Amino acid sequence: MRRIAAKFWRTNDWVLHHDNARPHTAYIVQESLAKNKMAVVPYSPYSPDLAPCDFFLFPKMKIKLKGRRFDTIEELQEETQTVLNTLTNKHFQDEFEKWEKRWDRCMRFQGDYFEGDGAE
């Protein structure tokens, strides 16, 4: 994975999507991104519609772990890793395509919340 990320960094063939958390919007971060000519996808403030963990990863984890009891943190970590290992490149590609549609819709609605209204 690191080799793939390094290739994209060298060729500038990718964009960064992050939220508006203070560490991400800090001057030093913005300065570094600009210096490296990093394209940043606009992010609507406080928009849960665009957080992949909220609409992709966490729901998958909940489905697989629902109703289970774990005696130790290690047992929970092991089962979580097992669930993560079942995700394929196709899962991520499909979710990325859904994310693109969500991002477009979010930008068209100027950041208004649209989760749960059949928006996909």
UniProtKB/TrEMBL annotation:
GO molecular function, one term: nucleic acid binding
Superkingdom as given in the UniProt entry: Eukaryota
Matching PANTHER family: MARINER MOS1 TRANSPOSASE-LIKE PROTEIN
Protein name, per record: Tc1-like transposase DDE domain-containing protein
